[in-house]
Design a protein that fits this description.
Elements: E1 4-7, E2 9-12, E3 15-22, H1 39-66, H2 70-83, H3 86-99, H4 103-119, H5 124-127, H6 130-145, E4 158-162, H7 167-172, E5 178-183, H8 191-199, E6 203-205, H9 210-217, E7 222-226, E8 231-234, H10 238-261, E9 266-267, E10 273-280, H11 286-291, E11 297-300, H12 315-328, E12 334-337, H13 372-385, E13 391-395, H14 401-420, E14 428-434, H15 437-441, H16 443-446, E15 452-455, H17 457-465, H18 483-499, E16 502-505, H19 513-521, E17 526-529, H20 534-542, H21 546-556, H22 562-574
Parallel strand pairs: 3-4, 4-5, 5-6, 10-11, 10-17, 11-12, 12-13, 13-14, 14-15, 15-16
Antiparallel strand pairs: 1-8, 2-6, 3-7, 7-8, 9-10
Length: about 575
């Protein structure tokens, strides 16, 4: 077979090549119906299997913890909790008693319903949890059917190829035999990808067509991949092999430098300093981000506290989690994003009507009209956590000064209540996310009312270019360096300067080296990103000249497309 190259989505950096093995799972038997009068016994059989799945997952969590991966162990502990989630289990029981389904069909149906709700969320972190629900429901179904969770082992080192991998399969395969992972489906934010990054396994997801090509070519071919670029090479020839090996050497050198360089400031060659912060989704991500040089948290997503549970977290629970993150960053500011849920992010204990277009519906801060207690409780927890160190709070989906006023009123109420109760509180800076163009276009009317703003470039791109972030057919529109988005960012920077307030960027754009230097070129001086992106962005900034970046950014505002802008800044960071 001739050398063939595919491009997927980068999921875990690193280079790998070797023989490939396709992992498959044995199909569950055809499901049946429950005979009349046996519904109760079938429901009990389901609950027993769920208990067994929870025990198995806790044991898996303990093994992963013992192997030195405490953050990943927490994933399986969460899966264990999911196996006992009343919404999942009682939903399945309801299908047994009301529809006569057997336990296998019922748990699969209940899992599919829950997963469908999560899969429709615009936040990629949250939508990726759909795979976790399916994984847990599948584990329970296989226990019920007497079918092993994994039918194929990995007897020798190989590149693992599959349609998708469950988190538990990723964790239980012998890691010493996993050279790399190539998935036809999946996403970079799914837990299988998170685990691959944690274990240092190169991975590419979304490699469409790879399975059919491999099956047509037959076994015995070598497969190469670059988890940093998304490239997959089938049957690499001597030239491709030499290229992959050279890349592997560069990656090894760069990883050695990451720790050494983490203490270096992100300063351009002509002396312009840029603060690099971390986007995190749980306290477990604080220490790794800190080790890579994060100077604080620019975005702490709080949805993880509210999902996959039968009731909302208490104020005490929230305060403890927020305080843990604040303490982990030892005096560097932590920015908390208030709860971002809505019609597209259904939560069982917060029933909301279905909306035809939830991306433009009642979500995030807009929920405060009917559910102010959600945000007041969260703000109370933030003020209490602020006793431990500097803390900032920002509201998502702010469209104008009216929304900013809602945030300020909620904060005043929370603060007043705590003071009236004699509870110790700290200072909290209040700000807003800039995700809607109208918020930037009306900046001068309300920026002076807040302490800071943070640009969420993922949604800003979506709303500016009228592009569904989840539609693969619109890939070319999803690049945030589009001239229109860059111009809006420049306008926001100018507005923040006039108001004398801080501004940061916390979208994925900030973690892309070429896009990051473009942001520096339009005046952004604070960038927040996933921890693994910090080293590459730091290097790009330290290698750049701010005066060149300003000139390039000014020219980029008049470019015709995102591709033109990207080419311009790619040339700058590689020259």
């Amino acid at each position: 077979m001739e050398t063939t190259a595919l491009r997927g989505v980068p999921a875990a950096p690193g280079i790998a090549r070797g023989p490939w093995v396709r992992l498959t799972r044995r199909e569950l038997p055809t499901v049946g119906r429950v005979r009349p009068g046996e519904e109760g016994a079938e429901a009990e059989r389901l609950r027993a299997a769920a208990d067994q799945a929870a025990d198995d997952l806790m044991a898996l969590s303990a093994r992963v913890e013992a192997a030195g991966h405490s953050d990943e162990a927490a994933i399986f502990m969460a899966h264990a909790a999911m196996a006992g989630d009343p919404g999942l289990i009682e939903g399945a029981v309801g299908r047994i008693t009301a529809e006569g389904e057997d336990a296998v069909a019922a748990i699969q149906g209940s899992g599919a319903t829950a997963a469908a709700m999560l899969a429709g969320l615009p936040d990629p972190i949250l939508s990726a949890r759909a795979a976790d629900v399916i994984d847990v429901a599948d584990r329970i179904a296989r226990l019920l059917a007497g079918v092993p969770a994994e039918s194929d082992l990995l007897p020798s080192p190989a590149v693992v190829v599959a349609e998708d991998l469950s988190p538990s399969m990723t964790a239980t395969l012998p890691r010493e035999h996993i050279l790399g992972i190539v998935l036809e489906g999946g996403s970079p934010t799914a837990h299988a990808a998170i685990l691959a990054r944690a274990y240092g396994i190169p991975a590419v997801v979304g490699a469409r067509g790879v399975l059919s090509l491999l099956e047509a070519s037959g076994a015995g071919l070598e497969l190469g991949l670059d988890g940093g670029t998304g490239e997959v090479v089938l049957a690499p020839d001597t030239v491709a092999i030499a290229d992959l090996d050279a890349r592997a050497a560069r990656v090894a050198t760069a990883r050695q430098a990451d720790g050494v360089e983490s203490s270096l400031p992100a300063v351009t060659r002509d002396g312009v300093a840029v603060t690099l912060l971390a986007n995190i989704g749980s306290p477990a991500e604080a220490a790794p981000s800190r080790a890579l040089g994060a100077r604080g948290v620019g975005l702490l997503r709080t949805e993880f506290l509210f999902l996959e549970r039968p009731a909302p977290p208490t104020e005490d629970e929230q305060a403890a989690v927020y305080r843990e993150v604040v303490e982990a960053f030892g005096g560097d500011a932590v920015t908390i994003r208030l709860l971002d849920i809505g019609g597209d992010k259904p939560i069982p204990y917060l029933p909301m009507p279905r909306e035809d277009n939830p991306f433009l519906g009642v979500r995030a801060l807009r929920l405060a009209t009917d559910r102010p207690e959600l945000f007041i409780t969260q703000l109370r927890a933030c003020y209490r956590a602020a006793v431990a160190g500097p803390l900032k709070v920002m509201a998502p989906m702010v469209a104008d000064g009216g929304d900013a006023a809602v945030l300020l009123d909620l904060a005043t109420r929370a603060r007043s209540e705590l003071r009236g109760e004699g509870v110790a509180i700290g200072e909290v800076d209040l700000g807003a996310m800039l995700e809607i163009p109208s918020a930037i276009l009306s900046a001068d009317s309300w920026f002076p009312d807040v302490a800071f703003v943070s640009i969420g470039t993922n949604d800003l791109t979506q709303y500016t270019l009228a592009v569904d972030r989840g539609n693969p057919a619109l890939e070319r529109y999803r690049d945030s360096v589009h001239p229109a988005v860059l111009r809006l960012v420049a306008m926001a920077v100018a507005g923040a300067d006039r108001a004398g307030i801080g501004l940061s960027v916390c979208g994925e754009m900030a973690g892309d080296p070429a896009a990051a230097v473009a942001l520096v070129g339009v005046g952004v001086r604070s960038l927040s990103m996933g921890g693994p992106s910090l080293p590459a962005v730091r290097r790009a900034i330290r290698a750049a000249d701010a005066s060149w970046l300003r000139e390039a950014a000014l020219a980029a505002l008049d470019d015709r497309s995102a591709a033109d802008v990207r080419a311009r800044f790619d040339r700058l960071i590689t020259s």
